[in-house]
Amino acid sequence: MVAVARKHGRTPAQVVLHWHLDLGHVVIPKSADPQRIRENLAVFDSALDGEDLAAFAALDRPDGRIGPDPETFG
């Protein structure tokens, strides 16, 4: 995440937000810090490429989860 953020001149939080938006997820970032709120809104003027998305997808390792699998949690 950090490498992708550096590549795009963004914060890790911004690329994570952008990633979730690219996946079609509804994201509701929360912050009381005005600077962080501005950062959260500044995700719409950049784009993640296929290499970025592949790097994020490679992070999904079921053996490394610290919580339940969202595909089977019920």
TrEMBL record:
Name the UniProt key words of this record, in alphabetical order: NADP, Oxidoreductase
Superkingdom as given in the UniProt entry: Bacteria
Matching entries from InterPro entries are given as: AKR, Aldo/ket_reductase_CS, NAD(P)_OxRdtase_dom_sf, NADP_OxRdtase_dom
Positions of the NADP-dependent oxidoreductase domain? 3-60
What are the GO MF terms of this UniProt record? oxidoreductase activity, acting on the CH-OH group of donors, NAD or NADP as acceptor
Q: In this record, what's one Pfam family?
A: Aldo_ket_red
* Sequence similarity: Belongs to the aldo/keto reductase family.
Which PANTHER family does the record match to this protein? 2,5-DIKETO-D-GLUCONIC ACID REDUCTASE, NADP-DEPENDENT OXIDOREDUCTASE DOMAIN-CONTAINING PROTEIN
Name listed for the protein in its UniProt record: NADP-dependent oxidoreductase domain-containing protein
Give the originating organism.
Methylobacterium oryzihabitans
